[in-house]
Amino acid sequence: MAAKTKKKAPAKRKVSRAKAGPKTRTTAKPKAKSSSSAGGKAKLKAKAKTKAKAPAKKATAKKSAKKAAAPKKSAAKSPRRSVVVTTTRSDRRRAPLRPAPIPKGKMLSRDFLEKLAITIRDAVRPVIEQEKGREVVGTAASGDATFQLDKVAEKALMTHLRDEKATVAYYSEDSGYTTFASGQPTNLLIVDPIDGTRAAKLGYENCVIAVASTRIIERPSLGHIDNACVFELLGNRSFYAERGKGTRMYINGQYKKPRLSKNTNLETMTWSMAVPARPAELIFPTAAKLIDLSSLKGGFFACNSTSYSLTRLLTNQLDATVDFANRYLRDLGEIVDDHFINAGRGAQLGVTPYDIAASLLVAEEAGCVVTDAYGDSLENVLALDSSTGNQQSVIAAANKDLHDKLMSFFSTRIAQFERLLERRAELTKKK
Length: 431
Known about the structure:
D-Maltodextrin-Binding Protein, domain 2, Fructose-1,6-Bisphosphatase, Chain A, domain 1, eight-stranded mixed β-sheet, five-stranded mixed β-sheet, 2 domains, alpha+beta
Protein backbone atom coordinates (compact mmCIF):
# COMPACT_ATOMS: atom_id res chain seq x y z
CA MET A 1 0.00 0.00 0.00
CA ALA A 2 2.91 2.31 0.75
CA ALA A 3 4.38 1.77 -2.73
CA LYS A 4 1.08 2.70 -4.38
CA THR A 5 0.89 5.88 -2.34
CA LYS A 6 4.35 6.95 -3.50
CA LYS A 7 3.41 6.41 -7.15
CA LYS A 8 0.19 8.45 -6.84
CA ALA A 9 1.77 11.40 -5.03
CA PRO A 10 3.89 12.69 -7.93
CA ALA A 11 0.91 12.39 -10.27
CA LYS A 12 -1.15 14.63 -7.97
CA ARG A 13 1.64 17.19 -7.87
CA LYS A 14 1.90 17.18 -11.67
CA VAL A 15 -1.83 17.57 -12.03
CA SER A 16 -1.80 20.54 -9.69
CA ARG A 17 1.04 22.17 -11.69
CA ALA A 18 -0.75 21.49 -14.92
CA LYS A 19 -3.83 23.31 -13.63
CA ALA A 20 -1.72 26.37 -12.96
CA GLY A 21 -0.26 26.45 -16.50
CA PRO A 22 -1.67 26.37 -20.03
CA LYS A 23 -3.62 23.38 -21.29
CA THR A 24 -0.99 22.53 -23.89
CA ARG A 25 1.58 21.74 -21.18
CA THR A 26 -0.86 19.40 -19.43
CA THR A 27 -0.89 17.06 -22.43
CA ALA A 28 2.88 17.22 -22.84
CA LYS A 29 3.90 16.32 -19.25
CA PRO A 30 2.44 12.79 -19.00
CA LYS A 31 4.26 11.84 -22.27
CA ALA A 32 7.52 13.13 -20.81
CA LYS A 33 7.05 10.78 -17.83
CA SER A 34 7.16 7.64 -20.02
CA SER A 35 10.63 8.53 -21.39
CA SER A 36 13.64 7.27 -19.49
CA SER A 37 16.47 9.30 -21.15
CA ALA A 38 17.23 13.04 -21.13
CA GLY A 39 17.40 13.06 -24.96
CA GLY A 40 13.96 11.52 -25.20
CA LYS A 41 12.57 14.13 -22.84
CA ALA A 42 14.06 16.92 -24.96
CA LYS A 43 12.50 15.48 -28.14
CA LEU A 44 9.12 15.15 -26.47
CA LYS A 45 9.32 18.72 -25.18
CA ALA A 46 10.11 19.95 -28.69
CA LYS A 47 7.12 18.03 -30.09
CA ALA A 48 4.94 19.46 -27.34
CA LYS A 49 6.00 22.99 -28.23
CA THR A 50 5.27 22.35 -31.91
CA LYS A 51 1.79 21.10 -31.07
CA ALA A 52 1.23 24.05 -28.77
CA LYS A 53 2.09 26.50 -31.57
CA ALA A 54 -0.14 24.81 -34.16
CA PRO A 55 -3.43 26.40 -33.02
CA ALA A 56 -1.79 29.84 -33.10
CA LYS A 57 -0.79 29.31 -36.76
CA LYS A 58 -4.35 28.38 -37.66
CA ALA A 59 -5.59 31.51 -35.95
CA THR A 60 -3.05 33.59 -37.87
CA ALA A 61 -4.12 31.98 -41.10
CA LYS A 62 -7.75 32.84 -40.34
CA LYS A 63 -6.83 36.44 -39.57
CA SER A 64 -4.83 36.79 -42.80
CA ALA A 65 -7.73 35.29 -44.74
CA LYS A 66 -10.04 37.91 -43.23
CA LYS A 67 -7.59 40.69 -44.10
CA ALA A 68 -7.34 39.43 -47.67
CA ALA A 69 -11.11 39.46 -47.95
CA ALA A 70 -11.46 42.96 -46.48
CA PRO A 71 -10.30 44.93 -49.56
CA LYS A 72 -12.80 43.03 -51.70
CA LYS A 73 -15.59 44.22 -49.44
CA SER A 74 -14.38 47.83 -49.53
CA ALA A 75 -14.04 47.67 -53.31
CA ALA A 76 -17.60 46.44 -53.64
CA LYS A 77 -18.85 49.16 -51.33
CA SER A 78 -17.78 52.47 -52.88
CA PRO A 79 -17.21 55.67 -50.85
CA ARG A 80 -20.10 58.08 -50.51
CA ARG A 81 -19.00 60.39 -53.31
CA SER A 82 -18.35 57.48 -55.67
CA VAL A 83 -21.89 56.24 -55.11
CA VAL A 84 -23.17 59.61 -56.26
CA VAL A 85 -20.98 59.47 -59.36
CA THR A 86 -22.11 56.00 -60.41
CA THR A 87 -25.80 56.91 -60.32
CA THR A 88 -26.78 60.02 -62.29
CA ARG A 89 -23.63 62.13 -62.35
CA SER A 90 -20.97 59.85 -63.85
CA ASP A 91 -20.47 62.08 -66.91
CA ARG A 92 -20.03 65.19 -64.77
CA ARG A 93 -16.92 64.13 -62.84
CA ARG A 94 -13.51 63.96 -64.44
CA ALA A 95 -11.74 60.60 -64.70
CA PRO A 96 -8.12 60.27 -63.49
CA LEU A 97 -5.55 60.46 -66.24
CA ARG A 98 -2.75 58.01 -66.92
CA PRO A 99 0.76 59.29 -66.15
CA ALA A 100 2.08 61.35 -69.06
CA PRO A 101 5.31 60.48 -70.86
CA ILE A 102 8.44 62.31 -69.73
CA PRO A 103 8.66 65.57 -71.72
CA LYS A 104 11.44 65.84 -74.30
CA GLY A 105 13.29 68.97 -75.32
CA LYS A 106 13.70 72.28 -73.54
CA MET A 107 10.90 74.27 -72.01
CA LEU A 108 10.29 77.78 -73.28
CA SER A 109 12.28 80.49 -71.54
CA ARG A 110 10.93 83.07 -69.15
CA ASP A 111 11.99 85.75 -71.63
CA PHE A 112 9.86 84.16 -74.39
CA LEU A 113 6.72 84.06 -72.23
CA GLU A 114 7.15 87.58 -70.88
CA LYS A 115 7.77 89.13 -74.31
CA LEU A 116 4.52 87.59 -75.53
CA ALA A 117 2.58 88.96 -72.54
CA ILE A 118 4.11 92.44 -72.98
CA THR A 119 3.20 92.46 -76.68
CA ILE A 120 -0.45 91.74 -75.85
CA ARG A 121 -0.47 94.37 -73.09
CA ASP A 122 1.01 97.05 -75.38
CA ALA A 123 -1.61 96.33 -78.03
CA VAL A 124 -4.59 96.38 -75.66
CA ARG A 125 -3.83 99.32 -73.35
CA PRO A 126 -4.34 102.08 -75.96
CA VAL A 127 -7.71 100.60 -76.91
CA ILE A 128 -8.82 100.68 -73.25
CA GLU A 129 -7.62 104.27 -72.82
CA GLN A 130 -9.62 105.29 -75.89
CA GLU A 131 -12.69 103.59 -74.35
CA LYS A 132 -13.03 101.31 -77.37
CA GLY A 133 -13.48 97.59 -77.63
CA ARG A 134 -16.53 97.29 -75.37
CA GLU A 135 -18.95 95.83 -77.88
CA VAL A 136 -19.71 92.11 -78.02
CA VAL A 137 -18.58 90.71 -81.38
CA GLY A 138 -18.95 86.95 -80.95
CA THR A 139 -18.89 83.88 -78.72
CA ALA A 140 -15.83 81.93 -77.57
CA ALA A 141 -15.52 78.12 -77.73
CA SER A 142 -16.46 77.97 -74.04
CA GLY A 143 -19.69 79.91 -74.70
CA ASP A 144 -18.41 83.11 -73.10
CA ALA A 145 -19.00 86.46 -74.78
CA THR A 146 -16.18 87.79 -76.98
CA PHE A 147 -15.65 91.55 -76.86
CA GLN A 148 -13.86 93.64 -79.47
CA LEU A 149 -11.06 94.02 -76.91
CA ASP A 150 -10.57 90.24 -76.96
CA LYS A 151 -10.15 90.38 -80.73
CA VAL A 152 -7.38 92.96 -80.39
CA ALA A 153 -5.58 90.77 -77.86
CA GLU A 154 -5.94 87.62 -79.99
CA LYS A 155 -4.56 89.41 -83.05
CA ALA A 156 -1.54 90.61 -81.07
CA LEU A 157 -0.94 87.06 -79.84
CA MET A 158 -1.10 85.54 -83.32
CA THR A 159 1.07 88.22 -84.92
CA HIS A 160 3.79 87.95 -82.28
CA LEU A 161 4.07 84.17 -82.52
CA ARG A 162 4.11 84.28 -86.32
CA ASP A 163 6.94 86.84 -86.26
CA GLU A 164 8.91 84.76 -83.75
CA LYS A 165 8.80 81.73 -86.09
CA ALA A 166 9.08 79.44 -83.09
CA THR A 167 8.17 75.74 -83.32
CA VAL A 168 5.24 76.17 -80.99
CA ALA A 169 1.51 75.56 -81.02
CA TYR A 170 -0.90 77.57 -78.92
CA TYR A 171 -4.38 77.29 -77.48
CA SER A 172 -6.43 80.36 -76.62
CA GLU A 173 -10.00 81.25 -75.73
CA ASP A 174 -11.08 82.44 -79.17
CA SER A 175 -8.64 80.79 -81.58
CA GLY A 176 -8.65 77.31 -80.07
CA TYR A 177 -5.66 75.14 -81.12
CA THR A 178 -3.33 76.81 -83.65
CA THR A 179 0.19 76.08 -84.89
CA PHE A 180 2.65 77.92 -87.14
CA ALA A 181 5.23 75.12 -87.24
CA SER A 182 5.58 73.10 -90.47
CA GLY A 183 6.62 70.06 -88.43
CA GLN A 184 5.73 68.73 -85.00
CA PRO A 185 5.62 71.56 -82.41
CA THR A 186 8.08 71.19 -79.55
CA ASN A 187 6.12 73.33 -77.09
CA LEU A 188 2.52 74.26 -76.47
CA LEU A 189 1.32 77.60 -75.11
CA ILE A 190 -1.98 77.93 -73.26
CA VAL A 191 -2.92 81.60 -73.34
CA ASP A 192 -5.73 83.69 -71.94
CA PRO A 193 -4.97 87.03 -73.65
CA ILE A 194 -7.32 88.87 -71.29
CA ASP A 195 -8.73 87.22 -68.20
CA GLY A 196 -11.26 89.70 -66.85
CA THR A 197 -12.34 91.42 -70.08
CA ARG A 198 -15.45 92.89 -68.41
CA ALA A 199 -13.20 94.80 -66.01
CA ALA A 200 -10.61 95.62 -68.70
CA LYS A 201 -13.08 97.25 -71.08
CA LEU A 202 -14.07 99.68 -68.29
CA GLY A 203 -10.54 100.35 -67.10
CA TYR A 204 -10.87 98.44 -63.79
CA GLU A 205 -7.62 96.91 -62.62
CA ASN A 206 -8.75 93.31 -61.97
CA CYS A 207 -7.68 91.89 -65.33
CA VAL A 208 -4.53 90.02 -66.39
CA ILE A 209 -2.71 88.39 -69.29
CA ALA A 210 -1.95 84.72 -68.55
CA VAL A 211 0.56 82.61 -70.50
CA ALA A 212 1.45 78.98 -69.67
CA SER A 213 3.80 76.57 -71.43
CA THR A 214 4.14 72.77 -71.61
CA ARG A 215 6.21 70.25 -73.58
CA ILE A 216 3.31 67.78 -73.61
CA ILE A 217 1.56 68.38 -76.94
CA GLU A 218 -1.02 65.58 -76.91
CA ARG A 219 -3.71 65.76 -74.21
CA PRO A 220 -1.79 67.81 -71.63
CA SER A 221 -3.24 68.30 -68.17
CA LEU A 222 -2.77 71.27 -65.86
CA GLY A 223 -0.19 69.23 -63.98
CA HIS A 224 1.97 69.19 -67.11
CA ILE A 225 2.54 72.96 -67.21
CA ASP A 226 6.30 73.66 -67.14
CA ASN A 227 6.31 77.38 -66.50
CA ALA A 228 3.96 80.35 -66.62
CA CYS A 229 3.71 84.10 -66.33
CA VAL A 230 0.82 86.38 -65.40
CA PHE A 231 0.95 90.12 -66.17
CA GLU A 232 -1.37 92.79 -64.87
CA LEU A 233 -3.00 94.43 -67.87
CA LEU A 234 -3.42 97.84 -66.26
CA GLY A 235 -0.98 97.59 -63.34
CA ASN A 236 2.77 97.22 -62.94
CA ARG A 237 3.06 93.75 -61.40
CA SER A 238 4.02 90.49 -63.05
CA PHE A 239 4.45 86.92 -61.77
CA TYR A 240 6.63 84.11 -63.11
CA ALA A 241 6.74 80.47 -61.94
CA GLU A 242 8.58 77.27 -62.89
CA ARG A 243 7.36 73.90 -61.68
CA GLY A 244 9.38 72.87 -58.65
CA LYS A 245 11.32 76.15 -58.51
CA GLY A 246 8.87 78.56 -56.91
CA THR A 247 7.30 81.86 -57.97
CA ARG A 248 8.79 85.29 -58.44
CA MET A 249 6.88 88.57 -58.28
CA TYR A 250 8.05 91.75 -60.01
CA ILE A 251 6.95 95.37 -59.62
CA ASN A 252 8.13 97.53 -62.51
CA GLY A 253 10.63 94.81 -63.28
CA GLN A 254 12.07 94.76 -59.73
CA TYR A 255 11.96 91.46 -57.85
CA LYS A 256 9.69 91.33 -54.81
CA LYS A 257 9.16 88.27 -52.64
CA PRO A 258 5.54 87.06 -52.61
CA ARG A 259 3.81 87.64 -49.27
CA LEU A 260 1.11 85.16 -48.28
CA SER A 261 -1.42 85.90 -45.57
CA LYS A 262 -1.25 83.86 -42.38
CA ASN A 263 -4.78 84.77 -41.36
CA THR A 264 -6.99 81.81 -40.44
CA ASN A 265 -9.89 83.76 -38.90
CA LEU A 266 -13.01 83.71 -41.10
CA GLU A 267 -14.34 86.87 -39.45
CA THR A 268 -11.30 88.93 -40.53
CA MET A 269 -10.81 87.14 -43.86
CA THR A 270 -10.50 89.18 -47.06
CA TRP A 271 -11.75 87.14 -50.00
CA SER A 272 -13.37 87.16 -53.41
CA MET A 273 -15.95 85.06 -55.23
CA ALA A 274 -16.35 84.71 -59.01
CA VAL A 275 -19.81 85.74 -60.21
CA PRO A 276 -20.02 86.05 -64.06
CA ALA A 277 -22.74 83.71 -65.36
CA ARG A 278 -22.86 81.88 -62.01
CA PRO A 279 -26.50 81.61 -60.87
CA ALA A 280 -26.87 84.25 -58.17
CA GLU A 281 -29.82 82.39 -56.63
CA LEU A 282 -27.45 79.47 -55.93
CA ILE A 283 -24.11 81.03 -55.06
CA PHE A 284 -25.20 83.91 -52.85
CA PRO A 285 -27.49 81.89 -50.53
CA THR A 286 -24.65 79.36 -50.21
CA ALA A 287 -22.07 82.00 -49.28
CA ALA A 288 -24.45 84.35 -47.40
CA LYS A 289 -23.39 83.45 -43.84
CA LEU A 290 -19.71 83.78 -44.70
CA ILE A 291 -20.30 87.12 -46.43
CA ASP A 292 -22.13 88.42 -43.35
CA LEU A 293 -19.39 87.11 -41.05
CA SER A 294 -16.43 88.57 -42.93
CA SER A 295 -17.62 91.71 -44.73
CA LEU A 296 -17.27 94.05 -41.72
CA LYS A 297 -13.89 93.21 -40.16
CA GLY A 298 -12.46 91.55 -43.25
CA GLY A 299 -13.72 92.14 -46.77
CA PHE A 300 -15.75 90.46 -49.50
CA PHE A 301 -15.38 91.20 -53.22
CA ALA A 302 -17.25 89.92 -56.26
CA CYS A 303 -14.66 89.30 -58.97
CA ASN A 304 -14.68 88.58 -62.71
CA SER A 305 -11.18 87.11 -63.06
CA THR A 306 -10.05 83.97 -61.25
CA SER A 307 -6.45 84.48 -62.41
CA TYR A 308 -6.39 88.02 -61.03
CA SER A 309 -7.79 86.82 -57.69
CA LEU A 310 -5.23 84.00 -57.44
CA THR A 311 -2.36 86.45 -57.90
CA ARG A 312 -3.81 88.68 -55.15
CA LEU A 313 -3.01 85.87 -52.72
CA LEU A 314 0.68 86.53 -53.47
CA THR A 315 0.41 90.27 -52.86
CA ASN A 316 -1.29 89.74 -49.47
CA GLN A 317 -4.34 91.63 -50.72
CA LEU A 318 -6.60 88.57 -50.48
CA ASP A 319 -6.62 85.66 -48.04
CA ALA A 320 -8.76 83.46 -50.28
CA THR A 321 -10.80 83.23 -53.47
CA VAL A 322 -13.59 80.82 -54.36
CA ASP A 323 -15.67 79.73 -57.35
CA PHE A 324 -17.78 76.76 -56.25
CA ALA A 325 -20.74 77.08 -58.66
CA ASN A 326 -19.65 74.19 -60.89
CA ARG A 327 -20.06 71.73 -58.02
CA TYR A 328 -23.83 72.26 -58.15
CA LEU A 329 -23.81 71.49 -61.86
CA ARG A 330 -21.82 68.27 -61.34
CA ASP A 331 -23.85 67.12 -58.34
CA LEU A 332 -27.38 67.96 -59.41
CA GLY A 333 -27.25 67.95 -63.21
CA GLU A 334 -30.60 68.65 -64.80
CA ILE A 335 -32.04 69.97 -61.52
CA VAL A 336 -29.90 73.12 -61.89
CA ASP A 337 -29.21 73.14 -65.65
CA ASP A 338 -31.75 75.88 -66.28
CA HIS A 339 -30.26 78.05 -63.54
CA PHE A 340 -26.88 78.03 -65.30
CA ILE A 341 -28.32 78.43 -68.80
CA ASN A 342 -30.34 81.47 -67.71
CA ALA A 343 -27.35 83.04 -65.93
CA GLY A 344 -25.13 82.39 -68.96
CA ARG A 345 -27.75 83.74 -71.38
CA GLY A 346 -28.01 80.41 -73.17
CA ALA A 347 -24.69 78.80 -72.20
CA GLN A 348 -23.41 77.02 -69.08
CA LEU A 349 -20.26 78.90 -68.05
CA GLY A 350 -17.62 78.29 -65.41
CA VAL A 351 -13.87 78.08 -64.85
CA THR A 352 -12.24 76.67 -67.99
CA PRO A 353 -8.71 75.20 -67.90
CA TYR A 354 -7.17 78.00 -69.99
CA ASP A 355 -8.52 80.47 -67.38
CA ILE A 356 -6.27 79.04 -64.67
CA ALA A 357 -3.48 77.16 -66.50
CA ALA A 358 -0.93 79.89 -65.72
CA SER A 359 -2.26 81.31 -62.45
CA LEU A 360 -2.68 77.86 -60.86
CA LEU A 361 1.05 77.15 -61.22
CA VAL A 362 1.93 80.66 -60.04
CA ALA A 363 -0.23 80.31 -56.90
CA GLU A 364 0.81 76.76 -56.00
CA GLU A 365 4.52 77.38 -56.51
CA ALA A 366 4.22 80.36 -54.14
CA GLY A 367 2.77 78.08 -51.43
CA CYS A 368 -0.97 78.66 -51.79
CA VAL A 369 -3.43 75.77 -51.44
CA VAL A 370 -5.70 75.43 -54.49
CA THR A 371 -8.25 72.64 -55.06
CA ASP A 372 -11.66 72.21 -56.61
CA ALA A 373 -14.82 72.49 -54.46
CA TYR A 374 -14.49 68.80 -53.52
CA GLY A 375 -10.99 69.34 -52.12
CA ASP A 376 -9.34 67.48 -55.03
CA SER A 377 -6.22 68.58 -56.89
CA LEU A 378 -6.70 70.21 -60.30
CA GLU A 379 -3.54 68.71 -61.80
CA ASN A 380 -5.40 66.03 -63.79
CA VAL A 381 -7.75 68.46 -65.53
CA LEU A 382 -7.35 68.31 -69.34
CA ALA A 383 -5.83 71.66 -70.31
CA LEU A 384 -7.27 71.93 -73.85
CA ASP A 385 -10.84 70.83 -73.15
CA SER A 386 -13.13 73.87 -72.85
CA SER A 387 -16.38 71.93 -72.94
CA THR A 388 -19.02 72.31 -70.24
CA GLY A 389 -18.16 68.89 -68.82
CA ASN A 390 -14.57 69.98 -68.15
CA GLN A 391 -15.36 73.27 -66.43
CA GLN A 392 -14.10 73.41 -62.86
CA SER A 393 -14.61 74.88 -59.42
CA VAL A 394 -11.92 76.53 -57.26
CA ILE A 395 -11.30 76.90 -53.54
CA ALA A 396 -7.98 78.69 -52.95
CA ALA A 397 -6.37 80.07 -49.80
CA ALA A 398 -3.04 81.54 -48.78
CA ASN A 399 -2.54 78.83 -46.13
CA LYS A 400 -3.75 75.30 -45.42
CA ASP A 401 -5.62 76.04 -42.18
CA LEU A 402 -7.78 78.66 -43.86
CA HIS A 403 -8.36 76.35 -46.84
CA ASP A 404 -9.53 73.60 -44.48
CA LYS A 405 -12.02 75.98 -42.85
CA LEU A 406 -13.38 77.10 -46.20
CA MET A 407 -13.77 73.51 -47.38
CA SER A 408 -15.66 72.65 -44.21
CA PHE A 409 -17.96 75.67 -44.56
CA PHE A 410 -18.77 75.26 -48.26
CA SER A 411 -19.10 71.47 -48.16
CA THR A 412 -21.68 71.82 -45.38
CA ARG A 413 -23.61 74.66 -47.00
CA ILE A 414 -23.60 73.11 -50.48
CA ALA A 415 -24.85 69.78 -49.08
CA GLN A 416 -27.66 71.56 -47.19
CA PHE A 417 -28.73 73.58 -50.22
CA GLU A 418 -28.56 70.56 -52.53
CA ARG A 419 -30.95 68.64 -50.27
CA LEU A 420 -33.33 71.59 -50.41
CA LEU A 421 -33.12 71.75 -54.21
CA GLU A 422 -33.71 67.99 -54.51
CA ARG A 423 -36.82 68.21 -52.30
CA ARG A 424 -38.15 71.06 -54.43
CA ALA A 425 -37.55 69.03 -57.58
CA GLU A 426 -39.40 66.02 -56.10
CA LEU A 427 -42.36 68.17 -55.12
CA THR A 428 -42.48 69.67 -58.60
CA LYS A 429 -42.58 66.20 -60.19
CA LYS A 430 -45.47 65.12 -57.96
CA LYS A 431 -47.62 68.09 -58.96
